[in-house]
Amino acid sequence: MDLSAGVVAAVSPARTAGGSCAAAEPLTVLLLGPTGSGKTALSLELAQHYGGEIVSCDSVAVYRGMDLGTAKPTKEERARLPHHLIDVTDPDQPFTAGEYSRQARVALREISARGHLPIVTGGTGLYLRALTEGLFAGPERQPELRARLERSRAKHEKQSGSSRQVTPAMNTANLLTRYHREAVANSLNDLPNLPHSSKEWQMLSSNHLVQSETWLHRLLHRLDPASAARIHSNDAAKLIRAIEVCLAARKPLSEVLARDPLTGFRVLRIGLNPPRQALPPREDLYDRLNRRCAAMFASGIVEETRSLLERYGPVKALDSLGYRQALAVLAGTLSVEEAVAAAQQGHRNYAKRQLTWFRREPEVHWIAGFGDEPETLRAAIELIQNKW
C-alpha cells in the first residue's frame, strides 16, 4: 500500500479555492515506547507505506561503531529508507540533548520540505522532550573555560584540608562583573577573556567561602545562589554548566532558563505498550529483552567493546546498557553468563523507567502491542489517517 501521494498533501500547506495557502502545518509522527517494543519495525512499515523518513531518537545510536548494543536498524533497513541522527559522531565526542534537538529539528524541516512524512522513533525520553519542548536557550559549551574549571577543581581536591590564603569575597564579585562586561562585547557563544595564569584567576577561585570538596558548588553560590540551591554539590557536570552559563551569558542560569518548543508542525504521538508479563503462548516484553541481550553477547558485543575501548578509551558512552556489562567481562569482574544476566535485568529496569517517563508525555495514543504485530500497524495507520 503506497500512500505517499496522500502524505504529500498532508505535509504540504493546504490551498484554498482561490489558490492561496491555508495555515495547515505539516504532520510529524513520534513513535515512543520502551526498549524492545518494536518501534523500529513499526517505523519502517509506516515509512514504507507513507513515503516517510525516519529520525532516530536514541542517545547511543548517534555514536559510530556502537552497533550491537543499540539495536540500530541494519544496513539493509537503512538502505530501504532515509534515516537521520544515526552514526553522526564518535563515542569520545560530547553529544547533548540540546545538540540532538538542533539537528533533529533541521531534519524535520528538510523532510517536510521534500513532501515526506517525518517519523521520529526512539526511547530516549530526554532527547524527545528536548525536541518537542526545547531546552533553555543558553550559550554553547566553552571548552577552554570547562578545562580551566576542571583543573581548578582537581587542584582544590588535591589540596583538601590545607590552609589557603583568604581573599575578600568582594574581589571575586568584582572580577565576575568584569568577565560579564567582556562577554557583552563578544557573542554569547564566545569565551569570555578569562585570565590564564594571573592573580585574577586565583582571586576568582580562592575566596573565603571555598572549601576543597565543594569548590565548584561554592563558586556557583557566589554567582547564582538559586541554581546552587537546586544542584547537588557533587554534581560536577551540572555545576560546571551553570558556571559556564553565568560567565558567558553575564547573568545567572536561573535567569536565562527559557524553553524553545517545537513549532510549525502538528505532532502525533503514538506509544507502544506491549505486555511486560504474559501467559504462554503469548510473548511478553521481558521475554524479548532477555533474548535480545543474549543475542548481543552471542553476536560479539564484548569484542566490539574491546575495539571501542582500545580506540577511544573509557569514554562515557561505554557506560550504556550492554557495553557496561561487556566492560565488566573485559575487566574480569563478571563472567559472560553473569554479564548477560546483568544486562537482561538492566534492560528490564530501563523499560520500566521509560514507560514511567513516556506516560508523562501529553496526548499519547497508546497501542497495547508490539510494533511488528499486524494489529499494531493497522491501529497506527488509522491514527495517522485521522490526523490528516
Short description:
The chain is an alpha/beta fold. It contains 17 helices and 6 strands. It has 2 domains: 185 residues, P-loop containing nucleotide triphosphate hydrolases (Rossmann fold), CATH 3.40.50.300; 114 residues, Histone, subunit A.
Please give a handful of descriptors for the protein shown.
6-stranded parallel β-sheet, Histone, subunit A, 388 residues, 51% helix, 6 strands, 17 helices
Inertia-based shape: globular
In CATH terms, the superfamily of the largest domain is P-loop containing nucleotide triphosphate hydrolases
What is the name of the CATH architecture of the largest domain?
3-Layer(aba) Sandwich
H/E series:
HEHEHEHEHHHHHHHHEHHHHEH
Low-confidence stretches: 1-23, 161-213
CATH topology of the largest domain: Rossmann fold
Overall average pLDDT = 81
Q: Which structural class fits the helix and strand makeup? A: alpha/beta
Q: Would you report the number of β strands?
A: 6
CATH structural class of the largest domain: Alpha Beta
Number of helices: 17
**Largest sheet report:** 6 strands, parallel
Count of discrete structural domains = 2
Percent range for β-strand residues: 5-15%
Spatial ordering of strands, largest sheet: 3-2-4-1-5-6
Termini, distance in Å? 17 Å
Could you describe the 3D structure shown?
With 388 residues, the protein is an alpha/beta fold. It has two domains: 4-135 and 261-283 and 358-387, Rossmann fold; 143-256, Histone, subunit A, CATH 1.10.20.140. The protein has helices at 4-11, 39-50, 75-80, 97-113, 125-132, 143-158, 169-185, 199-205, 215-223, 225-230, 236-249, 253-256, 285-299, 301-312, 323-331, 336-358, 374-387; strands spanning 27-32, 52-56, 83-84, 117-121, 266-272, 364-367.
